[in-house]
Amino acid sequence: MDLLQPTREAFSLLFTGNPELWRIIFISLRVSLIAMLVVTPIAVAAGFFLATVAFPGRRALVILIQGLLSSPTVVVGLLLYLLLSRQGPFGSWHLLFTQEAMIIGQIIIAFPVVVAFTLSAVQGADPRAHETAVSLGAGTTHAALTTLLEVRFGVMAAVFNAFGRVFSEIGCSLMVGGNILGLTRNIPTAIALETSKGEFAQGIALGIVLMAAAFGVNYALAFLQGEGGLK
Amino acid sequence: MSGLLLQIEGLRKNYGGRRILNIERLALHAGESYVVTGDNGVGKTTLLRIIAGLERAQVTHYQFEGRQVSLENFPHRLRQEIIYVHQHPYLFKTTVVANIGYGLKARHLPKAERETLIKEAMEWAGVAHLNHVPPQELSGGEKQRVALARTKVLKPKLYLLDEPTANLDAEARRQAIELIQRLCLDNNCVLIACHDYELINLPRMRRMTLSDGRLLPQVATASQERTV
User: Fold this and answer.
1) What is the pLDDT along chain A (231 residues), one digit of tens a residue?
2) Which end of chain B, N or C, is less surrounded by CB atoms within 10 Å?
3) What is the C-alpha R_g of chain A?
4) Taking CB atoms and an 8 Å cutoff, what residues of chain A touch B85?
5) Could you give the ipTM of this predicted complex?
6) How far is B153 from B142, CA to CA, in rounded Å?
7) DSSP assignment, residue A176?
8) Model pTM?
9) Residue A94: strand, helix, or coil
10) Contact B135/B99 with Cβ under 8 angstroms?
11) Burial code of A209-218, b = ≥16 C-beta within 10 A, e = fewer?
12) Gap between the Cα atoms of A128 and B91, Å rounded
């Protein structure tokens, strides 16, 4: 197979501002960023709560969250499809094959990732951080935010990791989004479709964007960590 | 003697089935300085942490400024009055200024007032030149002085200092002792857990020894305690 020609076409599509291609990129970014904006505060708070508060069933919940880390996105898509389909309990909301359904799916996928990594970061925090905050007169919320700030690199890693997972997932987006051009077609679903049609140029162009986003996220994390990442 | 600040009666603390603290009565008076000595692992740190409300214990009576306090539900108000400083103080990964101003911010003081108080505290502790050094890069002695400034700026009624000179080199130790001495001479109530001969022998220092979980008036001589 000649890879050079479709790759050349891919760059041409990207840099000539092909509207269809950029619409797909825009949908991908919109869905994933909204999902992350919604899930981050809730999941970080849940991770902090799990790391610091003892309650009956806590261990079982931690195991469940960690188990959900490896849940296949297609299964999340299937469950969400059943819930949102016309005969499902939330069928009346008419969310199936919309960006909102994709956002809900990505929230469900990102949630355990952010919770589990935040839990791990907070558990690894120096206990003196929280004690010092409390001893200096910080209230419960202020002390919790201080501890999270002290482990911010771990928490940021949690958020970026989750973003990487939802931005590149295909199973759930395909099932609840339906891969509708201009509406719910995002980068991963478009790559799968274009490749199956033998349209490699667009697939490669979108693959480049996906890889660039992945590297961009990693570079952003490394930049934000700065000297803090050094031991 | 000044007024009674803190009174604890019937303090019991167990660890793994072993009773490590069994104190009938501890009374601290405003403006007085106290030192608790005792072997390593005898429970000095635990005692300070219990007083600061950072650790639970059985207490039949805990009274601060005449008001009854429950250790189970340590009042936030007391966090403003009693400050515990770790043996190795923890500095937040921000700046020296932000560390010293942390408690002031928690008390919602206006920015201008905070800045004035922080400046005074930094000069008092001799850390004004460390303004632009990341806290993680400070030496043990510098961290201890920043932690003392961070505590003093809040003007607590009771300072709980846990081994403030442990693991410091000679110069850093001298500087820390000088600051603590000034705190004591300024009529603050200070309770120090330590082995340091010079701290134990500071003027007006009231000495107690923790032994087999019991708190005894000072019986050990300075030479017995000398470990520096």
Assistant:
1) 577 788 888 888 888 888 888 899 999 999 999 999 999 999 999 999 999 999 999 999 999 999 999 889 999 999 999 999 999 999 999 999 999 999 999 999 999 999 999 999 999 999 999 999 999 999 999 999 999 999 998 999 999 999 999 999 999 999 999 999 999 999 999 999 988 998 888 888 889 888 888 788 778 777 876 655 444
2) N
3) 20
4) 135
5) 0.90
6) 16
7) H
8) 0.86
9) coil
10) yes
11) bbeebeeebe
12) 9
Among the partner-chain residues A135, A137, A139, the one whose CB lies closest to the CB of B54 is: A135
Which superfamily does A4-224 belong to?
A: MetI-like (1.10.3720.10)
CA dist A187 and A175 (Å) reads 14
- Give B92-131 as a DSSP string: -SS-HHHHHHHHHHHTT--HHHHHHHHHHHHHHHT-GGGT
Q: A35 Cβ partners below 8 Å, 6+ apart?
A: A102, A103, A106, A107, A110, A166
Q: B86 vs A149: CB contact, 8 Å cut-off?
A: no
Domains of chain B (ranges; CATH) run: 4-90+157-225 (3.40.50.300)
Sign, Cα dihedral of B171, B164, B19, B21:
positive
pLDDT in tens, B181-225: 999 999 899 999 998 989 999 988 999 999 999 998 764 444 444
Q: Does residue A137 sit at the B interface (CB-CB below 8 Å)?
A: yes
Tokens of A115: 């919770």
Q: Which of B77, B23, B87 is nearest to B50 (CA)?
A: B23
Chain A partners within 8 Å of B79 (Cβ): 134-137
DSSP bridge pairs for B85: B161
E-strand stretches of A61-150 = none
Which among A132, A137, A149 has the least Cβ separation from residue B80? Answer: A137
Q: Cα Rg for chain B, rounded, in angstroms?
A: 17
Write the DSSP symbol of residue B80: T
Residue whose entry in the numeric block shows the structure tokens 């806590």: A58
